[in-house]
Amino acid sequence: MSLEQYDFSFSLELLTDTHVGAGPEGLRPLHELRSGQLVDQARKQYQERTGLDGSPPIATIVRGRNDAPCIPYSGLKGALRRISDPRSHRALFGIEPNKAQGEQGQQGKLFVWAGFPTGSLAEPPDTMPFWDQDKLTFILPHIGSDPRRGTVAEGLLFNAEYLPAGLSFSFEGVFCGRYSEVEAALVPLFNRMAHPDGFEIGAEKTKSHGRVRLTNEQITLHKQVYASDPPRVEESEIGITIAPTVGKSPRRIMLDIQCEGPFLIGDPLRRTGDDAPDMSYLARRDNRPELTGEAIKHHLRRRSAWLERTTDWESRGEADKRDRKLNPGESPGALTSTQRLFGVNGWAGLIAVERIELIDGPSDQPTLPGVMINDFTQGVISGALFEDEVAVDTRYVVTLGMRDRTWKGRDSEETYPNDTDEKLFRRLASDLADNGLVLGRGEGHGFGWFACTGIGHSASEVADKEA
């Protein structure tokens, strides 16, 4: 009788900014995480607006030894299960017990320890809000929207701590099984983890966050065989060459979008000095403007609801009631196509903004003056002027993905997207090609009007269409 064990290590690189949250107990006030004048200013504004002590709450990331950021296996396991072949799930992850049928569970044979950062960042995002080189994170504010009006909801803000794209994490793991299982289950998993598009972990995955990729070209397995007759330990090494592959890939389209005019996604933390503008655009470094997946999904959802409603005005009514909740046991067929595509409480959306890449720009960063309007009279407030620093002539390539999902009811099984969802998605893509999209602040003043100059299913296809 003998037992086999294979020890190994691997590295994951963050392709996009990532938030692996610490859960409800990880919600901490800003002043416990950062210090300085900007924190004092944020704390004062928070107390004035809420009447509460303290400072804005921040959803923090998981940290391990010496307060270093980490990615726990509990946060990685679900992602690996999603991209792996279902036939390998029993060997890799085990099976849950089924008490109703009297079936016992089975422990998986794959074990991975938490991963910690390794190496250094080639391009630290040193102009992102509250970037801290020691903590290796920045803090990004998010804005909730009013579901009735489709506009920003007054006072509805939340903040999250993010690890930056480009950061690498090192992991160690062990597989307790036969080499035939290594070949059939573990090696194909490594290959799928190494696909150039990466795979998703953490929160906000549908808004261009949380994509990682295996970077090893080869993984060495340290094999140990524990034999009982006679008692001995045999050790050897096996080199595995990684051949990136992909499992069931979501349908993707790539949008080539360009804004020749002013564009602004605001970063209030960049207001410093007497001559500084009232609002500067969010930038990662070297004045490169940041386009967020949140802004893209907000526009796509709003446009999708309008297209769905105009398709069948009388019967559909309001196509996107965002306070809609899909109750346990309720079929997603009861939702509108817009709600199925972009999600509601109880149903994760099918469409994700996977990647955003800045191609060109900005050619200039002018400061534009503006005036403040009285909400009651709609007249100009005397002496109330402000200035916005904007980016001009920016171009991005945005990757959208649409996933397949299966809903299992008590007596039925349904697969989405259905034909109606597919039709609406194609119509939305056509609308983007014809009318472009509006992103960021100041759309009523002509800011953020992007033309969609190419739509394809790969970067080369987008380039061919543009040519």
Account of the 3D structure:
The protein is α+β, with helices and mostly antiparallel strands and 467 residues long. The protein folds into two domains: 2-241, no CATH class; 251-466, Alpha-Beta Plaits. The protein is built from ten helices and 25 strands. The strands form seven sheets. Strands 1, 6, 7, 10, 11, 12, 13 and 14 form an eight-stranded antiparallel beta sheet that branches. Helix 6 (293-311) packs across helix 9 (419-435). The protein is globular. The model is unreliable at 144-157 and 459-467 (pLDDT under 50).
- In which range does the helix fraction lie? 10-25%
Structural class: alpha+beta
Mean pLDDT: 83
Number of strands: 25
**Percentage of residues in DSSP E strands:** 25-35%
Note the total helix count.
Answer: 10
What are the segments in which pLDDT stays under 50 over at least 5 consecutive residues?
144-157, 459-467
Q: Biggest β-sheet: count, sense, barrel?
A: 8 strands, antiparallel
Shape: globular
Count up the domains: 2
Q: For the record, give the distance between the C-alpha atoms at the N and C termini, rounded to a whole number.
A: 65 Å
From the structure provided, what is the oligomeric state, counting identical versus distinct chains? single chain
